[in-house]
Amino acid sequence: MLELFLCPRHPGNLRLTVSSCAASWERVNRTKSDESPCFGCPIGAAHAGAPLPIPANKAVADICPRCRRTYRRLVKGVCVCCYNRQRESDIGANRRGNPPRTPPSEVVSIGVAGLGQYQRRATSVAEVAIAAAQATVEAAMFFRLSALPMPDRSAKLQL
Question: Coil, helix or strand for 120?
């Protein structure tokens, strides 16, 4: 007798066997076809005997950290548009030879629980936080690096 289970990720109350679920999960994750409901499925991973292959923070997986738009393709961690603006900034001129309008990037550091210090060339701290969240497998918790001692809050400012 075949044991069937109701797959919650497929529409239409699809019933699968454990072996067909595992085979579908392996096929989809081998080809990296993220259009299928089997991509990254924890049930399929358990049936195949594999750990969960996707990060817990899939919500930020395909977001450009710089412009915060959703893109399927990221080049060196940013979307194609932001990558082109970064190249213009590095070269010092755009396609027409004029100086670029985008602000230059600089090395920004933040602290990430589990990773320690995370550095990246960026235009803002938010960009580095999104890139760090994409790099971690677990949920990320951020903290400020205390490079300078905090001032005494009880002291009054002398003007």
Answer: strand
Instruction: Name residues whose C-beta falls within 8 Å of residue 127's C-beta, 6 or more positions apart in sequence.
Output: 65, 66, 108, 120
The pLDDT, as a whole number, for residue 143 is 63
Per the confidence metrics, is the pTM higher than 0.85? no
Instruction: For residues 68 and 71, give the distance between their C-alpha atoms in angstroms, rounded to a whole number.
Output: 9
Nearest residue to 66 (alpha-carbon basis) of 82, 80, 90: 82
Q: 123-138: b or e for each residue (b if 16 or more CB lie within 10 Å)?
A: beeebbbbbbbbebee
Cβ contact 79:67 at 8 Å? yes
What DSSP letter does each residue of 1-44 carry, written as one string? Answer: ---EEE-SSSTT--EEEHHHHHHHHHHHHHHT-TTSTTTT-HHH
| pLDDT, greater one: 146 or 17 | 17
Q: Which residue ranges make up each domain of the chain?
A: 4-48, 58-143
- Higher-confidence residue of 44 and 111: namely 44
Cα–Cα distance for residue pair 21/15, rounded to 1 Å = 10
Looking at 13-17, 29-33, 57-61, which range is the least confident one?
Answer: 57-61
Could you count the other beta carbons within 10 Å of the beta carbon of residue 57?
Answer: 17
